[in-house]
Amino acid sequence: MASNPPSLRLPALRLIVSQDARHPAGGHAVLVLQGANRAPGDLRLVIRRRQPPEHFLGPEGWQPTAAEILAEGQEREGGTAALLLGPAVVDRIKPYVKLEIMVPSLGQQGTLIWPELRQSPEGYLPTGGYVAGGVSPARGERTGMKPPETTRREPVLEPPAEAPPEPPPEPPALAAEPKVLPPRRKPARWPWLLLLLVLLVAAGLAAWQYFDRGPERLLCEWGVIDCTVDPCPPSMPLEERQACLVKSLTPDELFELAEKLGNSGDKVNRDLAWWLFSTLADRSYSRAERELGLCYDPLLPEGCSLQPRLVANARQALLHYRAAQAEAEATALCQWLQPRSDLESQAAFQEFCQ
After folding, report:
1. Please, which of 121, 196, 258, 285 could form a disulfide with 273 given CB 3.0 to 4.6 Å?
2. What is the mean pLDDT of the chain?
3. 8-state DSSP, 217
């Protein structure tokens, strides 16, 4: 299983995003940096999407490599530092996406679930120059350059050139001597020898793979392919296989195997993955607690290793988030529950969010 790219370990921020009321048409937001140790020294941000595919927001949109993007300005929001975000950010992020936002000038970062915000009118997304810190062209403004003016020049008449003198007559040609052709070269043999060598190497690797799975083992050790080991064959009875897995694998190995089984598309494997997550959660394994919270979270319809995922249940999600100390996910879910009026949502909010 491919590993996630390492993230920068920085002191945590609590991030709150809301619509910028100064722009009623949409496309602008205010990012409050609660817990910032000082005001930001500049407007640079690094915005990373923390659910597949994990990309960075750059000048031209989402990209797989790290990139910096500029806020439009900063201010104080109730005594707390805040950054003003424009269409370059607001128009490119969908609601309920989990993000990690780093402020390099503060040396701090935080995570949040992006809320529903009004975006700019269609066709008003700024250009890359605006995102990188330039000036956004006005709506409907033409940005092409005016061609340079040219002046017409009158042709200059030149005097006719004098006819060149006739060349002297050439002497009669002598009889050409017969040409001696070089001996014909034999075709080179080394391309055929090289092709034969390549075929022999390929045949040897195929035989090694067939009898000993040697190349596959090397690729597993180098981390090129996912080789999660299942020491207990699927042919075993379910209860015996469960006991075998718990006895043979470490918690980290059990978690990785559960992730692989949960996404295999097979119902039996999915049920076994859910059992492994639940068993690890009963043993206070925080990664499994958080994963179960994601599987129950109504805000993340696709952010779970169990496919198809569990039925959405905000109370169960908060229960696992609190056990895993996943504060960012729990805070986002509480914000979503607060305005809801149904009894189940209010009961979950009263139990876990106050």
Report:
1. 258
2. 80
3. H
Strands 80-85 and 108-113 turn out to be: unpaired
Q: 294 with 329: CB under 8 angstroms?
A: yes
Could you count the other beta carbons within 10 Å of the beta carbon of residue 127?
A: 15
Rounded to 5 degrees, φ, ψ at 292 are -65, -35
Quote the CA–CA distance of 79 and 81 in Å, as a whole number.
7
Instruction: Give the pLDDT band of residue 80 (cuts 50, 70, 90).
Output: confident
The pLDDT tens digits of the residues spanning 242-275 come to: 889 999 899 999 999 999 998 888 888 899 999 9
> CA-to-CA distance for 202 and 191, rounded, in angstroms?
17
CB of 276 within 8 A of CB of 258? yes
Which value, to the nearest 10 degrees, does the dihedral of the CA atoms of residues 38, 43, 49, 54 take?
-110
pLDDT tens-digit profile of 167-223?
777 766 665 666 777 777 778 888 989 999 999 999 988 888 777 666 766 776 676
Q: Which residue matches tokens 């900063």?
A: 74
Q: What is the rounded distance in angstroms from the CA atom of residue 18 to the CA atom of residue 11? A: 23
The four Cα atoms 309, 315, 319, 320 give a dihedral, to 10 degrees, of: 10
- Give the pairing type, strands 29-34 and 44-49: unpaired
- What does the pLDDT look like over 31-47, one tens digit per residue? 888 888 788 888 898 99
Give 116-153 as a 3 state SS string: CCCCCCCCCCCCHHHHCCCCCCCCCCCCCCCCCCCCCC
Q: Which residue has the higher pLDDT, 57 or 171?
A: 57
Q: How far apart are CA 308 and CA 312, in angstroms?
A: 12
Sign of CA dihedral 277, 279, 281, 283: negative
Torsions phi, psi for 158 (to 5 deg): -105, 150
